[in-house]
Amino acid sequence: MTNKYILAxxxxxxxxxxxxxxxxSPTAITLLEEYNEAPxxxxxAPEVCAIVSLNSPDDxxxxxxxxxxxxxxxxxxxxxxxxxxxxxxVAAMKCVKSISFGQLAxxxxxxxxxxxxxxxxxxxxxxxxxxxxxxxVTGLYDTGIDTDHINFTDASGETRIIAAARVQNGRPSSxxxxxxxxxxxxxxxxxxxxxxxxxxxxxxxxxxxNVPYYGVATGSDIVATAGELYDANILRGVQYCxxxxxxxxxxxxxxxxxxxxxxxxxxxxxxxxxxDKHGENAIIVVAAGNEGAIKMGVGKTFTSTDKTLxxxxxxxxxxxxxxxxxxxxxxxxxxxxxxxDRPFKFHIAVMDLDKPSDPQVIDEYVVEASTAGKSTxxxxxxxxxxxxxxxxxxxxxxxxxxxxxxxxxxxTASNSYYANVxxxxxxxxxxxxxxxxxxxxxNEGQTxxxxxxxxxxxxxxxxxxxxxxxxxxxxxxxxxGTINDMACGDxxxxxxxxxxxxxxxxxxxxxxxxxxxxxxGDVSDFSSYGxxxxxxxxxxxxxxxxxxxxxxxxxxxxxxxxxxxxxxxxVYDDALGIDHYWGRMQGTSMAAPYAxxxxxxxxxxxxxLDVNAxxxxxxxxxxxxxxxxxGDAVKWxxxxxxxxxxxxxxxxxxxxxxxxxxxxxxxxxxVAKGVYDVFAQGxxxxxxxxxxxxxxQAAAAxxxxxxxxxxxxxxxxxxxxxxxxxxxxxxxxxxxxx
Length: 738
Description:
- By secondary structure, the protein is an alpha+beta fold.
- It contains 15 helices and 42 strands.
- Strands 8-7-11-6-12-14-27-32 form an 8-stranded mixed β-sheet, with helices on both faces. The chain has a 7-stranded mixed β-sheet with strand order 15-25-17-23-22-20-21, with no helix packed on it.
- The longest helix is centred in the N-terminal third of the chain and has 18 residues, at 231-248.
């Protein structure tokens, strides 16, 4: 989930719009500058679907006088279609608090179902019924969705997708779609984990039989939205899922296995604020991110005697973590956010590191106060622009065509001062003898946190990280800061990944292929995490994310011809005359829909659960084991998701027992041979007895409260009768002791 950040050229703003610039997000400033520097012959102004926050929802009437098309006008945070040549006019309105264009996000089960006890819930083990997500809508916004995949059909072969829309520039299409992107399968895989239900005949592991790679909420209705992963499209897709669920009168879980590491990472962005509003009407699940092994964060709290932070960036191979040398073009973005609105002094400096114990500044450009979004180019001079600051030996540290674009501003949403640096560097001449560094001189009591985001010739392999370059007094990067910025709101549930398998078969052979370094049961190395400025730790919970087998888009397989080792199962569809495929993927993109599917099971048991209740249930019932007790506790969240124990607690969240069918009131589960855990919702006392078929009592127990353990270890294998009583309500079950 690295970010593809769009670099731009610079403009000099008219004096009358300087105050309006304070309302624009860093991406909006950059793209607006690019537009204003374009040739006069550019023709009709392009349109952007922007997120506009008003000072108050009551200001909507004033905003509507602009005559712009508003896609979503709820809660004072709007999705608005704005021509680029009117952006500054909109920003200048007193009723407008902030404007964000957003940025481009990127995409981020047989073994998995067992590890989190989903199999027990789906089969009704120890329950009066099985839970499949029936009566619940599962929705998503993603890319590469194959809506014709057999994994999204019911037992009669009818589609379970009740609505589908492709979203373009904030506008959802009508009439559904077959696929939004033939070159992607991410969304098909994600949806298959959350709600895929096909368990019929097919080819896998060199045999023919029932395909075991179905998902979690197999009985749920599905709403699918897809398209380019821009903020406005994502938010409109979420609203579409909520609207369609409201149409059928069912609760909804919406999964977002997408994200970006650009932003303040504090939940104050326009995107997070709008997503929080949606979270009041849906259970929204967000992937934590896949940069957990990359030192892309840096930070420091300044004291009266230590007010300086110095660091540098360089490109690494995201797969190995090794520094990459001799890159001809490396582009990206670094942002530094303060804990308050006091300006910090920001330096871009060329440093001589021949003596790491005594680094020397060769030359530097310093920003001492807010530029209100006005950019200056440092180093190279693209397009011969006037706002250009040459630096001695910058071309030695990088090259003559390298540059950095810098501006500072105050984030109106969080009232925090920040510095934004877009860079485009040729690293062929870079060496540790001469490097470009960032120096921040802060204020006593102020905390500054930085985040670096980058791409190269391949966004899957190149990324950036902070480094101290071997200088002891400089700040090295930290992996606690890798959390997806889209996941930092209050009304979402954030999911990290642990390893549920590390090997898998192919379609034609049971011989398994795998990757070393993925210990089954341990947290995934790539799983992102972070401690936010307000003290919150993310993710909230971890779920299976490596490696997970789920459905692949048939369009993707035809277009991209993936390796046979990536494809695990195949089913021929007589009706469509095509093959459907399953394959393996890994990432928090897989963990999030797994959790979303589990939450749909809980919503079936208790449709009244809100996001706070489900988050609380997930954290209180999380599995703690030898793996969760080691490593960084922040990375694990509360631990591993437990679908079964969570279902029991979900029942106890009912407002009254009268609201629950009697068949849901008592749950039992055999946790070992002859040992049964019993849960009786809302009971003051509970008792259980185990009888042989001849009527002889084999064991009995009584407990105060809802929970009881009946221990009948040492029993001879066979069939027994389990009788459970709770406040006068008695159930009898036939059980098999093996």
